[in-house]
Design goal:
Shape: elongated
Strand content: 5-15%
Order of helices and strands: HEEHHHH
Structural class: mainly alpha
Number of strands: 2
Largest sheet: 2 strands, antiparallel
Number of helices: 5
Helix content: 55-70%
Strand order of the largest sheet: 1-2
Distance between the termini: 16 Å
Length: 106
């Protein structure tokens, strides 16, 4: 289930804006997440509007998880440069391609 943050962010982007923590804040007082403040020039989303972003939100969150996994498997830039220097660019390209193949984005 996509988080309120992700669905709200997608709604904001669909209205040609970007997330701005001075314009919107989310809160949870123990009975669920909700939008506490809303200071954009367009209307705050309804629950049904937010629900319409569930699938896109799930995809975005899964892709973010996959990107984080890929980054950890790639290793740091200095380690990658060392690998290229020691084993060659073709070996590095093959390893990176395998990581991407093993961890495909949606």
């Amino acid at each position: 289930m996509a988080s309120l943050f992700t669905k709200t962010k997608l709604y904001i982007e669909a209205n040609s804006e970007t997330w701005n923590s001075t314009k919107v804040s989310l809160q949870n007082d123990g009975s669920g997440d909700y939008i506490k403040t809303w200071n954009y020039s367009f209307d705050k989303p309804t629950n049904s509007q937010l629900a319409s972003y569930e699938t896109a939100g799930n995809t975005e969150e899964e892709n973010n998880r996959i990107i984080a996994t890929r980054k950890s498997l790639y290793g740091s830039w200095d380690k990658q440069l060392e690998e290229i220097n020691e084993q060659g660019i073709d070996s590095w390209k093959a390893r990176i391609a395998q990581i991407k193949s093993d961890n495909p984005k949606e």
